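Researcher: I'd like a structural prediction for the single chain below. Treat it as a standalone chain; there are no partners to consider.
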Amino acid sequence: MPTKIIVSYDGTDHDRDALALGKLLANGGASLELAYVRHSLEAQSGRERFAENEAEELLAAGAASVGLPDLPRHVVLSGSTAEGLRDLAVSENADMIVFGSEYRTAPKHVDPQASARRLLNGGPVALALAPSAFASSPPERFETIVAITEDGDPSALETAESVARALGGSVARDQSRDAELLVLGTKPGIPTGRVTLSAASEYLIDLATCPVLVLPRGVAVSFG
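Model: Treating it as a single chain, here is the predicted structure.
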């Protein structure tokens, strides 16, 4: 089965950045899906149907905006965006969730949204983080992919090499200043299959001016 990517999408500029990053990664042989989390049901049936249709139309417009009108789409009902996306990813056997950056993040910088931050602390799938304004000029590929390993876990390097084979580009290690994609592993001591950042990785995200891909402990993501 190909790697499955779910993009968190609500039509805002930063989620359009996430969609652009998801599409680029999907060009490497992954499947792409969109998800929008609604936080409550409307009390009246007519208003509920309107809200549901509005959410479905938002996702349809997002898919059409990147020339992929047939993308699978999910409207999720959950009081928490992070929990709704986590549960969706588990039920759909997804490998990755893509987020845009926080509102008002400076262009070309990465600042994880609150929902992404929650999943960076114990989430069950890889997380991709798009820089602000990424959608304005997305590259066709990542020329330099930098893998930062944690205590011998090969997942980051294996994933970076897979992206390079699928999309082109080359892999470097421990040279984050030159990265066009930064691939980070999870800190030591975390159970296999869970994401938790080390302080060093959090610092690298703060400095990043390119997309960041964070992997669960011991789990590489394959492309191609």
